[in-house]
Write the structure tokens for this entry.
Amino acid sequence: MTNNNLHNLMTQITQEQKSLWRIEKHYIEEAGSDDEKALWEKMRKDKKQHIEDFKELIKKALEGFFD
């Protein structure tokens, strides 16, 4: 596993977490219609899953990083 790959994973999980925060703190509340709110709710669910996926990949990368 390359250092750059681990960096990429950590950078992307940070972006996903920032996006999730904006969705939860602003976008859902400010949605202009029920359809928009439903889309933001779906994206919130997707982002949470992406974050969990990245956590698992980062754990695996860190296990191999110090070998």
The chain has a mean pLDDT of 94.
